[in-house]
Structure formats: structure tokens, C-alpha cells
Design goal:
single chain; alpha/beta; TIM Barrel; 8-stranded parallel β-barrel; two-stranded antiparallel sheet; 7 helices; 10 strands; globular
């Protein structure tokens, strides 16, 4: 079954909706300076709404000092997602010191990007068109990608079934397409999850 990750949660209502819709993963942007970033205090509140659920909490960081992740966030997270220029040494050290699985995101523009993702030591890789761009990329580049991956970039209720059918990702990841006026829209979240689940019924 294709897993679902809903990312960029900023409000209690967003998290509660994602939980109640049966998302497998919920993502929080925890590095400063990004449009959907939330601070430590806000994250502490938001993640509390997932207590006792099966939803896995994903912290998204961009070139964050590992010490900060370990000190403030790691204990509350299930998975750490890296969206910057973090290298293999960084990944190994972070996994060693936190004991958490790591997702490494790769912006896909060429076959070289795909090869880098293929060779990554991260537990999972995420293939995207760019951080929060809301746009897709050339799927022909990953037609024969041979490791499980999270697919992101321009996915919506309108096209996610086609993407699953064509690429068979481990998980699909959406954020921008779930919003109206810069805020998560429960109706769009509901439509996205329903589109994935309907597709699953045909596989």
C-alpha cells in the first residue's frame, strides 16, 4: 500500500485533520526561514495531537547543526528528513546519535541526481522538484529507480493516482497542493488522501 505523507503542518487543525484522515506520516518544517517553519514551542504543541496514534512524526531540516536536532527535537520525532546539502558523514552521525531513521531529499533535474539518490546511505530518499515549489519534474528520469522512495513535487488529488500507477513509489508527499490562501485546506487534504486510497483499491 502506498504510504501518505502530509507535510508543512502549522496549526492544530492541520495536524488533527491529517491524523483523522489516516495519513501515515505528518511533516513539520523545523528549520528557520522557510514559509511553513514552526518554532520549538509550536512544534511541541502540534506533535502532541499525534500522541497515541500510528502517525509517524517527520521533522524537516535544512542544513541544521546536528547538535540542535539532537538537543531539541530528536526525542519527539520518529523520522528526520534532510532537505539541504547534508553529506554522507552528516547522515551517518545524525543516525548514530539520534537513533532515528533518516530521509534524504534530492532535487531531481538530471540522471546524476538520481544516481546520487540511489547511492545515498539514508534509510529513505525523497525525490522532489525543489523545496516547496509545488511543481513536478520529468518522471522519465526515475522510471527505473530501484529503491523505495517518497515522491514529492506537484502532487495533488488530480494527478497522484497517475503518479502511483506510473512510478509505484513507497510513499507520496504533498504540501503546497493541500493549501488555500497559504493555509492547509481540510477539503483538499481529504481529496488527496481519498485519491490515493481509491488508487490502492485498483492495484
Amino acid at each position: 500500500m502506498t504510504k501518505i505523507k502530509l507535510c508543512g503542518m502549522m496549526r492544530p487543525s492541520d495536524v488533527i485533520a491529517a491524523r483523522d484522515l489516516g495519513a501515515d506520516y505528518v511533516g513539520f518544517i523545523l528549520s528557520d526561514g522557510l514559509r511553513r517553519s514552526v518554532g520549538l514551542g509550536t512544534f511541541c504543541e502540534l506533535q502532541s495531537y499525534l500522541t497515541g496514534s500510528e502517525v509517524r512524526k517527520v521533522g524537516v531540516f535544512v542544513d541544521e547543526p546536528p547538535e540542535g536536532i539532537l538537543k531539541y527535537y530528536a526525542e519527539m520525532l520518529d523520522i528526520i528528513q534532510l532537505h539541504g546539502s547534508e553529506d554522507e558523514s552528516y547522515i551517518s552521525s545524525l543516525r548514530l546519535h539520534t537513533g532515528k531513521p533518516v530521509i534524504k531529499a534530492f532535487t531531481v533535474r538530471s540522471k546524476e541526481d538520481i544516481e546520487a539518490a540511489r547511492q545515498s546511505s539514508a534509510d529513505y530518499v525523497l525525490l522532489d522538484s525543489g523545496t516547496g515549489s509545488g511543481a513536478g519534474f520529468d518522471y522519465s528520469l526515475i522510471q527505473d529507480f530501484d529503491r523505495p522512495f517518497f515522491l514529492a513535487g506537484g502532487l495533488s488529488a488530480k494527478n497522484v493516482a497517475e503518479a502511483i500507477d506510473r512510478l509505484h513509489p513507497f510513499a507520496v508527499d504533498a504540501s503546497s497542493s493541500l493549501e488555500s490562501n497559504g493555509k492547509k485546506d481540510k477539503n483538499k487534504m481529504t481529496e488527496f488522501v481519498a485519491a490515493v486510497r481509491r488508487k490502492e483499491e485498483t492495484l
